[in-house]
């Protein structure tokens, strides 16, 4: 079998395993479910226009408004997330030499996705097809009830965040490939991209306090050779302790060049998430009367583990890097104070305009470099 993702992970088994371990979600009658789905779809359609009003990215917002919107349950999100991992990995995963290893890797990933499927509210996925917005109805409903939030306001609030990501990737169609390239380089480094198997040395709203699932035994996770199952465990945090298996993984195993690449990718994610938060907050008072109470309640529960940042966080093995992630909103506000949102939009022009890790903490330095 040729080296590649087809032989590395049994992706279909991962989706089946995830579907088998997830809980259905909070109870709701059929009229209530139809109203929930209709409200989420309506909010997803309305949100890009609000994003355009704040950002000035009108053409990108129009493309985002025409994008696919899928309102899904937890099992369907898990299957979609497996597709996302598959697309992100590309040809970076080597075919394991031990029989059954792909199924073990699929088992490990399935358990992790089953856990995550109870936590994700929404996710813009630019890596499959032309992009798609996934809204996980049972999770939105659960958090809406937990926060005692106005339904229409909360649905629009969630969609504003995710559709801001859709607008970002529409404004910067090169961005998905840029981020995937970094991930694939790291995977090749860790898992061995050469023929002898040797190697050089691992966008969403997520509430806290969700259901959990018990992952496979550590011995089972370590089976399969090549370290793929163990890597998936680190990537997804699917351990009994809920913490990364290898602290300081970045410094421990990555060459310096890839350390720098991955740190730069974290800075980009800081930009993406911070930008989405700023847009949400600016739109909020005009479109969402209860936005202040929603934001305050949600922040008390928030756990910064979206699907894309989760991958990088587990590769890094260092929670301290999330400080950089949290600085994204401060960067966006700092740039806007100097050059407005029109000036900030230069970040979508090409990879060279993305903020460096140092610039995330120093918006003025980015303005000077990009705008002179």
Automatic annotation (TrEMBL):
Renumbered residue ranges of the record's region Disordered: 191-226
Single GO MF descriptor: metallopeptidase activity
Domain of life the protein comes from: Bacteria
Swiss-Prot/TrEMBL keywords: Hydrolase, Metalloprotease, Protease
Biological process per Gene Ontology, one example term: proteolysis
Any Pfam family hit: Zincin_2
InterPro entries: Zinicin_2 (IPR018766), Zinicin_2_N (IPR042271)
Full protein name: Zinc-dependent metalloprotease
Organism, as annotated: Miniimonas arenae
Lineage: Bacteria, Bacillati, Actinomycetota, Actinomycetes, Micrococcales
